[in-house]
Amino acid sequence: MNINNMSPRTGQKLKDDNTVINTAEMVEALYDAFITNGDAKVQQTGSIVAEVKDESDADESNIITFSANIESIEIYHNETTQQEFTVNGVTLKVAPGGWRSPVAGTASDEVTIPADVTCTISRLI
Question: Do both 27 and 85 map to the same domain?
């Protein structure tokens, strides 16, 4: 594909309600908000520790319950092999040394940990 053979485009798109949007203007507005003005009013999530629990907080089914649903999590264990933790119905295979990330799935306040594993789990906001 040769760019010289492509027809020019206007950069305009249509929203669902047929309102015209100019792509270049949108990009410029985002650049100004994030870079030039620094006032995009966005908050980073998943970097602040809201709650910390460990294996001693687990019940007899190896479930740790937090005070709120988990959106982001940090899991640390000192085993020599990866371990499986279940968060929001999603099984995470966590390597030694830990893992931190937002978590999708069905919102829940519970983490199922492997039996007999020393671990620290942090709910992040």
Answer: no
Is residue 41 in some structural domain? no
* DSSP letter for each residue of 53-92: EEGGG--TTSEEE-SS--SEEEEEE--SS-EEEEETTEEE
Cα–Cα distance between 27 and 32 in angstroms, integer?
Answer: 9
- Pair 21, 28: CB distance under 8 Å: no
The region that residue 38 occupies, defined by phi over 0 for left and psi between -120 and 50 for alpha, beta otherwise, is: left
Bridge partners of residue 72, in order along the sequence? 102, 124
The low-confidence residues of the chain, meaning pLDDT below 70, are 1-15, 38-45
* CA–CA gap between residue 87 and residue 70 (Å, rounded): 8
Task: Tabulate helix, strand, coil % of the chain (nearest 5).
Answer: 15, 35, 50
Q: If 0-12 CB within 10 Å is exposed, 13-18 middle and 19+ buried, where does residue 27 land?
A: exposed
State how many domains the chain has. 2
Tokens representing 68 are 């709120």
Q: Which domain holds residue 106?
A: 49-124
Enter the pTM of the model.
0.66
